Amino acid sequence: MKIIVPSAGPVPDQRTAGYVINIAKRLNAQLVVLRVLMEKETEAVGEQSLSLFIEKGKKEKVPVIGILRRGDIASVIIEVAEEKSVDLIILGVSRGEIVAEWLNAEAMEKTDIPVLIIPKWVPPADRS
């Protein structure tokens, strides 16, 4: 099984990363972490964002592939999900954030891959 999780911002939330790594571990899945760079962001910023997932994956023995791309967020998520033949898309959502603002509902209709929404205020998932 393969799971893709897009990472937004230069530093992903540690609780969300831990929660996603725990899901991948329990499902014996490979995790594809996608960082879509904004127009003026450097690759170094993107690599920093990916490193949290990669480090947590190593610690928990979860295989993690980090990918940097540029482009429209929703389109890139779907493109990479299809390229990597993922089985599940996991999205983190902040309080008050409407999913349609981050990944518009139209994009979710363009793929048959299931989408799981994880609130960013989930409790830590460092338990086995």
Automatic annotation (TrEMBL):
This is Universal stress protein. It holds the Pfam family Usp. Residues 2-95 form the UspA domain. It comes from Candidatus Desulfacyla euxinica.
